[in-house]
Specification:
Metal Binding Protein, Guanine Nucleotide Exchange Factor, Chain A, seven-stranded mixed beta sheet, 5% helix, globular
């Protein structure tokens, strides 16, 4: 949001999807969070690395955000730092991927129905491919 953190991808994202888990809903302030999975080794912060702060829950991916403006930037697997989910709203242009699934729909908000968009719905996390 403030432009203090900049990043680049050396390869297009592998896929994208919506997460309806409680943590993502609370972090995003909406009914779901839309992220794109970076190809391992392709994500690099080019500016503002010192501004990146992360919430590190006991389980699950850490949630990185800008300490200056609070914008959600990406999530990262603490057991495999190359597994990065970039918040789609942070891309300057078209990242070239579209949402292809919805996960944690068993935790979806009752106040925002999941649209009938034809995407596969997973009660919990997206199964590995």
């Amino acid at each position: 949001m403030c432009g203090g953190v900049r990043y680049e991808l050396s390869a297009p994202p592998e896929y994208a999807g919506y997460c309806h888990c409680t943590r993502c809903r609370r972090r995003s302030g909406g009914g779901a969070s839309l992220s794109a999975r970076a190809k391992p080794g392709s994500f690099r912060i080019t500016e503002g690395d010192a501004l990146v702060t992360a919430y590190k829950p006991e389980t699950g991916f850490e949630k990185a955000f800008c300490s200056a403006c609070g914008s959600a930037l990406f999530s990262r697997n603490p057991d495999d730092p190359e597994q990065i989910g970039i918040r789609m709203g942070t891309f300057d242009g078209d990242p070239g991927v579209r949402a292809s699934y919805r996960q944690w729909v068993s935790s979806a908000a009752s106040w925002e129905p999941i649209p009938d968009d034809g995407l596969p719905r997973h009660p919990e996390g997206r199964p590995d491919r």
